[in-house]
């Protein structure tokens, strides 16, 4: 079986671990969000790709969900001693090595897709990890505060401001000129099923779907999504702040409508959301908390079962 999964960070990475356990023989291609990528201290940082790579490769800080296990922060402290900004983004010493190597390979001219493959040679995540695009795109957020109305990088809004200032607009800068990374459209075309894990529907999945060609390719496939919203609230994180910014209610129903029935064929919701419904979509209610490896594997298995029960859509 060939599975394609779109992926943001923590939610997706945990789900993917369950998917690997549920389908050990499947060929899994993960298309990762790179809209969150940022250049810090001259280094290119790809938080979502790294979260997936470290989680599936066994190097993640489990409690935190991002960053390396057994991390130290000497470099960060030394940079701060020089007064270097920003100091609000947590980069540990081990993590720095990843960004140094990535940046070196990028400046040597290798595209991000090849650089990611080189990094995965070490981590062996057990999936093929592709960035959504080799072109540089960045999610920017328009806010108004004491410094006036301005656009800031997504990470500044998310990490420094903890999404406490309302987003007036969220835009993926560079999306129109970007093309899918090599292998992305082929993997979607050849997939038996496309899974949307519980990732942020605006700044993770929504971002990937904005790369020209990707949404159209996914729409042709059997697609099952796992709701990231349970009982009207995100399970963790601040997805509600992103949904509010684009005028969408924080509910499993509204996220399904946002994705739409052209994209989604099957939608897993939590038991408290069992009344969710949309024409052309098969909705199934079941426990959706990824609170143990077994529970997560069962959610992934349910997504695959639902996909298998859907009428085949000819790619
Ligand atoms: P990502 O970068 O988009 O993957 O962002 P996060 O990992 O921060 O959040 C992903 C989304 O998944 C958030 O909207 C969470 O509410 C949701 N999420 C996190 N944990 C769970 C879970 O155990 N079950 C479900 N259904 N959703 C979850
Ligand atoms: Ca993310």
Automatic annotation (TrEMBL):
GO MF annotation terms: LPPG:FO 2-phospho-L-lactate transferase activity; magnesium ion binding
Keywords for the protein's UniProt record, in alphabetical order: Magnesium, Transferase
InterPro entries named among the record's database cross-references: CofD, CofD-like_dom_sf, FbiA/CofD
Matching SUPFAM superfamilies: CofD-like
Keyword Magnesium attached: yes
Enzyme class: transferase
EC annotation from Swiss-Prot or TrEMBL: 2.7.8.28
Classification via PANTHER family: 2-PHOSPHO-L-LACTATE TRANSFERASE
Name of protein: 2-phospho-L-lactate transferase
The species this protein was found in: Microbispora oryzae
